[in-house]
Amino acid sequence: MVIKIEREWCKGCGVCIERCPLHALELSKEMNKKGYFPPELTPNNTCNNCRLCELICPDLAIGVFVETVEGEVKAKGDGKNGPDSEYGSGEG
Predict the structure, then answer these.
(1) How many CB atoms lie within 10 A of CB 35?
(2) Strand order in the sheet with 62-67
(3) For residues 78 and 33, which has the higher predicted lDDT (pLDDT)?
(4) Which residue, of 20, 47, 51, 78, has the greatest Cβ tally within 10 A?
């Protein structure tokens, strides 16, 4: 799994840090271009990829992805509402 944090999208609210059940996130010591301190994974974190941080981020700045054997990175999810599902086919 890969946790991707879009540092420039973050406004440093800290909701992801407060809600992480395993305390795998902390505020960065470096500001983004907007002057906020985005989260980063803690050293030796115990992240279990529950996606809570991704789901509660009001800025959509955190994504949890599956890394394939070929090195591709794909969004993690159940596929129920993806582009190939009956709900997200894009055809209407």
Answers:
(1) 8
(2) 2-5, 62-67, 73-75
(3) 33
(4) 20
Q: Tokens representing 19?
A: 């809600």
The 10s digit of each residue's pLDDT in 38-88 is 999 999 999 999 999 999 999 999 999 887 766 666 665 554 444 443 434
Instruction: Please answer whether residues 33 and 9 qualify as being in contact, where contact means their C-beta atoms are separated by less than 8 angstroms.
Output: no
CA dist 23 → 41, 47, 79 (Å) = 9, 8, 28
pTM of the model: 0.71
Q: If we measure between CA atoms, which residue out of 73, 87, 21 comes closest to residue 51? A: 21
Structure tokens at 48: 């279990």
Tell me how far apart the terminal alpha carbons of the chain are, to the nearest angstrom.
33
Q: Count CB neighbours of 5 within 10 A.
A: 20
| Complete domains list, the chain, with CATH | 2-75 (3.30.70.20)
The Cα 60–Cα 11 span in angstroms is 11
